[in-house]
Fold this protein.
Amino acid sequence: MNTNESALLIEIENYILEIYNRKSKPKDFYDDLSRLLIEFNGIYNSDYSYFGCIEAFVELLRELNICLGCQGELAQQLKNLSFKYIQCRFEFYVSRHKRKLRDHRYSENENTAQLVKRMRTVSQRYSRILVVRLDLAYKKKYHHSVDIADFDNDMRILRQRIHNQDGIFKGLIEYAWALEQGTEKGYHCHLLLVYKGHEHKNAYGIAERVSEIWKKITFNQGCYFNCHSPEYLNQFEEQGTLGIGMIHRNDPDQVGNMLKAIQYLVRPEKEEQYLRVKVCKRMRTFG
């Protein structure tokens, strides 16, 4: 695969939303639309489930009866469809897109509430817990060769290792993960691991060892961000909001900060982090 699937899907979504909001036909409208359709056709998989706006392109592909390899010919055929007609078609899918986004936000709120409940229970059960956070992604130079099936497969392997408590995962008392898609990061995962505080103390070291496992799973295409690096932790320590690392049950501020910090797992800074494609409708993005 030579196309960056993640970036293309975000570009298509932004394009459809832009066209939907236009008052008049933009310059090179048919050329841009034909280019995106051809690129989308190159990555399209009929077995996949596409989010919201992307479904508009799926329907257009089904209707077009010429070879999508010729952009000029496709642009000519698209000119038989007026800008207003295509804009109305997009409007239908944008409405569905907005409904799905509302459903997504509701699901995020539910996931957040469940995770907070689980972590509150853990913090009450143990006198101290070690909360480890890291982000797993792919090196930018490999984004063009990693599609949603690769990401799903890599995550399945990692989750199985966690579930089996192999190696560094031995002794886990709680864990959570969230799959996302971003403009810069591409496909990525926020990972939370929780250990008994009297058995483990080095959160940074654990995150580093997990990153090595991720690199092996991804054949060295994977990269990571260790949330326990001193530079990253210092900014939260200075603000008195540090909520990862060693958390003591008898310190209400630490527990409170921890419960706030873990919400980032399913509530990223930007709302546009949802997956635009899944290998199937029931593909899990949180657990």
